[in-house]
Design brief:
single chain, elongated, about 15% strand, alpha+beta, two-stranded antiparallel sheet, about 35% helix
Length: about 200
C-alpha cells in the first residue's frame, strides 16, 4: 500500500507537539554542578612518588604535550661492600592541556600508576600559556581523583596482595617461633638454677 501523502510531515509534527508539552529540565550551571560519571576525563593528576621518569607517557603521547626533565643521582650502597646505584630524580613534569586530546594513552601506558583521571573540568584560562600545568599543579589535581570502585567479592585475589599476605604471615610465624624459643630457653635456665639454702642464725654462729 503506498504511503499516504503527508504522513511523514504528520509524524514529525506529532513528535514536535509531544516535546512541546514536556517540561524542560535545564541545569543552571554554574550554580548547579553537573553529576559527572565516575570515569569522566576532566584533567590528569600526577602522583609524583610513583613516577620513575621512564618517559613512556611522553613517548607515547600522540600530541607530544608532556614535558619531563630529570637528572641522575648516585645512591650509596645499602650494605658494606655493595655497589652504588644511580636513580633518576624528577625535575619537571608538565602537561600542556591546550594540546592534550584527552585520549588517556599516557595513563594507560604508565607502568607505575603515576597518572590518574580527575573529573575536574573547570580550569579554563584567559591565557593559553596558563594551560601548561606543572607538577605542583598536577599534584593538586590528585586530591580530586575519585576512589577506585570496590573489588568484586567473588573475584580472584590479586597476586600482589596474595604475595604480600604470604610474606606477612611468614614473618609473623618466624617472630612467634623466635618468641617461643626465647621463652623456652628462659624457662629452662630458671629450672636449672641451683637453689640457695636458707640461712639460719645457728649456721651463722
Amino acid at each position: 500500500m503506498p504511503p499516504i501523502p503527508g504522513s511523514g510531515l504528520a509524524k514529525g509534527l506529532a513528535v514536535t507537539l509531544r516535546t512541546m508539552t514536556k517540561r524542560a529540565h535545564t541545569a543552571q550551571y554554574p550554580e548547579t554542578q553537573p553529576e559527572l560519571p565516575p570515569r569522566s576525563r576532566g584533567v590528569i593528576g600526577l602522583f609524583e612518588e610513583n613516577c620513575t621518569v621512564c618517559m613512556l607517557c611522553a613517548r607515547e603521547c600522540p600530541d607530544w604535550c608532556i614535558y619531563i626533565d630529570s637528572h641522575k643521582e648516585t645512591v650509596p650502597a645499602a650494605t658494606p661492600g655493595g655497589r652504588e646505584r644511580s636513580r633518576n630524580v624528577l625535575d619537571r613534569f608538565a602537561i600542556d592541556f591546550s594540546l592534550c586530546m584527552y585520549c588517556g594513552i599516557c595513563i594507560e601506558v604508565c607502568p607505575f600508576d603515576a597518572l590518574f583521571w580527575s573529573p575536574e573540568f573547570e580550569y579554563a584560562e584567559t591565557d593559553i600559556h596558563d594551560l601548561t600545568h606543572e607538577r605542583d599543579k598536577l599534584r593538586e589535581w590528585m586530591w580530586t581523583v575519585p576512589a577506585p570502585p570496590a573489588l568484586d567479592p567473588a573475584a580472584e585475589e590479586p597476586k600482589e596482595i596474595a604475595a604480600a599476605r604470604k610474606a606477612v604471615d611468614k614473618a609473623e610465624a618466624a617472630a612467634a617461633a623466635a618468641a617461643a624459643a626465647a621463652a623456652a630457653a628462659q624457662a629452662q635456665a630458671t629450672d636449672t638454677t641451683p637453689a640457695t639454702p636458707p640461712t639460719t642464725p645457728e649456721a651463722d654462729a
